[in-house]
Design goal:
Strands 7-6-5-4-3-2-1-8 form an eight-stranded parallel beta sheet, covered by helices on one side. 45% of the residues are buried. It has two domains: 229 residues, TIM Barrel (Alpha-Beta Barrel); 37 residues, no CATH class. The radius of gyration is 18 Å and the shape is globular. The protein is built from ten helices and eight strands.
Length: 267
């Protein structure tokens, strides 16, 4: 499972305050803790700081780079911020994100090509967010096909079916799970990812919902996720799910985590 740590996101009040005040100690502590938790990428998002996002993104990348060499996931709606961060972030950087929206595709594809970067591909187009599995699959599959035609290797595509709040529309999570399964069958070489915590937005017992949805999504073929790596129960359930889905040969990873004291069972 490819884990992308979600915590350095400017939509979180404490992170936004740290970015505005240039609180390097706070930012670096979150970067270190996510690295220690075992993430493969650290998401860095400055999208809430519209007036000075490029400068803030550059500061954030430099600050994180001082304490970890873990690859970054550059997360911004602003192509200028993406471009600036990619020049600083180093090899292996993941771009978050491209979509089938005409302007977004035209703006981000040159960055993907220039840096030979993996990219998260959001299943949305100029008509907006898909509301059912058939349209969700159609939009995302067409985007994957277009990216491959434009020279992006399947292994560098992280297809994202757009996890959204279950509380707003309880039909969305089953539709997303359906899309995951159909994409996995049609495009076995691409990665499939999603922002897991989106599913619980606005609901109580959010961690319970996130953990349950992630396990369901993994069973359909999800192999990457943007999540909270400091949720130790969630991380333990990922290890157990990988074991039970046949992704952990001879249970070696599960046993190693157990011996290291990194598995947490719920009472």
């Amino acid at each position: 499972m490819i884990l992308i740590g979600e915590l350095l996101n400017s939509t979180r009040k404490r992170v936004r305050a740290a970015l505005e005040t240039r609180d390097a100690a706070f930012v670096q502590d979150l970067a270190r803790r996510q690295t220690d938790a075992g993430v493969h990428y650290i998401d860095v998002n400055t999208g809430a700081l519209l007036d000075h996002e490029v400068e803030c993104m550059q500061w954030l990348v430099r600050t994180v780079r001082e304490v970890t060499d873990r690859p970054l996931c550059i997360d911004s709606p602003n192509p200028e911020a993406l471009a600036a961060a990619l020049e600083l972030a180093g090899p292996g950087t993941l771009i978050n994100s491209i979509s089938a929206e005409a302007r977004r595709y035209e703006d981000v594809l040159p960055l993907v090509r220039k840096h030979q970067a993996p990219v998260i591909a959001l299943g949305m187009d100029d008509e907006g967010l898909p509301e059912d599995a058939d349209r969700g699959y159609a939009v995302l599959s067409q985007l994957i096909t277009r990216l491959e035609r434009d020279g992006v290797a399947p292994a560098n595509i992280f297809a994202d079916p757009l996890v959204r709040p279950a509380g707003a529309n309880t039909a969305i999570p089953p539709a997303v799970l359906d899309v995951i399964g159909r994409i996995r069958a049609a495009f076995p070489q691409v990665h499939i990812s999603g922002g897991i915590s989106n599913v619980s937005h606005g609901l109580p017992a959010r961690k319970l919902i996130n953990r349950t949805f992630l396990t369901l999504a993994m069973s359909r073929g999800l192999d990457a996720a943007i999540l909270d790596p400091l949720d130790t129960v969630l991380m333990s359930e990922i290890a157990a799910a990988e074991l039970l889905l046949g992704r952990d040969s001879f249970a070696m990873n599960f046993i190693s985590l157990y011996r290291a004291g990194r598995l947490e069972e719920k009472p």
